[in-house]
Amino acid sequence: MDEEGRLRNVFWADARSRSAYEAFGDVISFDTTYLTNKYDMPFATFVGVNHHGQTILFGCGLLSKENTETYIWLFKTWLECMSGKTPKAIITDQCMAIQGAIRVVFPNSHHRLCLWYIMKKIPEKLGGLSEYKAIKRILKSIIYEAVGIQEFEDIWLMMVNDYNVEKNEWVNSLYKIRHRWAPVYVKGIFWAGMSTTQRSESINAFFDGYVGPTTSLKQFVEQYDNALKSKIKKEAKADFASFNSSFPMLTDCYFQKQLQEAYTNEIFKLFQDELRGMLYCNLSLIKLDGQISTFHVTDIFRGKEGKVRRQVAFNVYHNSGELDIKCSCNLFEFRGILCKHICKVLIEKNVKEI
């Protein structure tokens, strides 16, 4: 409350949100863009993803101001509610006030800027340029198709030089913080598959029909409860399906059975997509150093219509002595899903268990 007794800031989380955070709180997405209520107070949400890939809510707030001080208050209040357990990674938009608050409250958490918001700004920031369409196409190629840091750097430099945007303030500012948003720079960190604002966008579906700009505080508390009940019901249904049914396996390799037991049905389906992708992979052994094997695995990038885009290559490192394997695509580190390139090597090496 302020000096005149008017509502200033509100934070809300219940035992269900705290329990969900305890289990799935490694990565959170913080969003303030979903809606602003009739009192001109932004609705802030702390969002995560569960073991079914479903959106879950870790808490929310209504804010009177969007400055660093207010966000510090909100983050500290939320952190106290979550028993002081800090998230390992946080996704936000480019708001400087939010970034300042994160540096204060979550100094050791990986902080990533939401790619969707950056892409959304391209027409506004570059739309007036004569070569806008070509620049936009190259930017998308850099972001979504570059497989390594060097490729990202090379194409970015080419774009800047060929289209004379070396003095464009927005392009330069974006490049300076590329380690915060470019997939090739952040893919080695676990983000639970939150590659864009998909979780924050999903919060729209989470609350749509429950809260809106005209919702009062009393109604908000009631509807928050209703929205959570609906989500918990969906999670319970998915749990039941995973415990009592399974998808047919695509291969007879034993490690697929292991992962079927470890993953929920929804995540196992994503893993099976990787197994299907092995059909387009070819491998060759390029180095053998004692128990450490290095494989070169070629893969094919395909467009939205299934047309072949280009052939790319990844390195898979297998240490049979330490039972360790790693791929340069970093899908496992990023999403927790074993990639097709690793699967190809495991089958080649006749690995029975992982």
Fold blueprint:
Elements: E1 10-12, H1 15-24, E2 27-31, E3 43-49, E4 55-62, H2 68-81, E5 89-92, H3 96-105, E6 110-113, H4 115-120, H5 122-126, H6 132-145, H7 149-162, H8 169-176, H9 183-186, H10 198-207, H11 217-244, H12 254-262, H13 265-277, E7 282-289, E8 292-302, E9 308-319, E10 324-327, H14 331-335, H15 340-348
Parallel strand pairs: 2-5, 5-6
Antiparallel strand pairs: 1-4, 2-3, 3-4, 7-8, 8-9, 9-10
Helix pairs in contact: 2-3, 6-7, 13-15
Domain SWIM-type: 312-350
GO molecular function: zinc ion binding
Family: Belongs to the FHY3/FAR1 family.
Descriptive key words:
354 residues, 19% strand, alpha+beta, single chain, Nucleotidyltransferase, domain 5, 4-stranded antiparallel β-sheet, 3 domains, 6-stranded mixed β-sheet
Which parts are unreliable, with pLDDT below 50 for 5 consecutive residues or more? none
Terminal residue distance: 55 Å
CATH secondary-structure class of the largest domain: Alpha Beta
Order of helices and strands: EHEEEHEHEHHHHHHHHHHEEEEHH
How many distinct domains?
3
The whole-angstrom Rg is: 23 Å
- How many beta-strand runs? 10
Content-based structural category: alpha+beta
> Based on CA inertia axes, which overall geometry fits?
globular
Instruction: Give me the side-by-side strand order of the main sheet.
Output: 1-4-3-2-5-6
Biggest sheet statistics: 6 strands, mixed
* Arithmetic mean of pLDDT: 85
CATH topology value of the largest domain: Nucleotidyltransferase, domain 5
- State which percent range the strand residues make up: 15-25%
Task: Give the second-level CATH assignment, the architecture of the largest domain.
Answer: 2-Layer Sandwich
Subcellular location: Nucleus
GO biological process, one term: regulation of DNA-templated transcription
Keywords: Metal-binding, Nucleus, Zinc, Zinc-finger
Function: Putative transcription activator involved in regulating light control of development.
